[in-house]
Amino acid sequence: MGAFDPNIVRAAYDTVAADYVATFGDDLDQLPLDRSVLDDAVGRRVGDGPMIDLGCGPGQVARYLADRGAHSIGLDLSPEMLHQARRQAEGQPFVCGDLRSLPFRSAGASGAVAFYSIQHLPRRDLPVALDEIRRVLAPGGILVIATHLGQGEVYVPELLGHPLQPVGGTMYGDHELQGMLEGHHFRVERVRHREPLPHEYSSNRIYLTARSLEE
What we know:
Elements: H1 6-24, H2 32-43, E1 51-54, H3 60-67, E2 72-76, H4 79-88, E3 94-96, E4 109-115, H5 126-136, E5 137-148, E6 153-159, E7 162-170, H6 174-183, E8 186-194, E9 205-212
Parallel strand pairs: 1-2, 1-4, 2-3, 4-5
Antiparallel strand pairs: 5-9, 6-7, 8-9
Helix pairs in contact: 1-4
């Protein structure tokens, strides 16, 4: 699995966690499109189950969802990121886990949000993660994915001034992602895009809102 090995991804984010908070922790204040996408997801969730923030990092999205009335749970691969998240939102639930094997019961979540986490899966593992997300969503549950547009893979040997064992990132095409969602029993309901902020990685972003379907 090389640069996509979860141990390598975990170690990278453990290393940069504190600086990540300082650099990106308040980004939602600068991102009206991101806030609009999240507000829409909260308003369209199904039932009163939790909304799961998949790859929550320091928890800014989970906190945003909670502030808007959702019972949110953050999940991340990195224990140090979860430590930062708990410092930022005392009392809010955060758990350690992998997108490919979610530690949640089936059909219990009203929604799921994956903001900039699926890129750390090798392309062949995204279907596994989509099946897991659909498993934990209530019928008709809402899913929002935000990720990087592009082609192929990138390999990052440094982040926020920290040298790293290179970490892999999978870039996706717009239609490729839509097709993968539709092929795994999701209906894509809305697609939006934005350009990067000056301090972000220089790729355009895509936001897909989809709803889980019965097989």
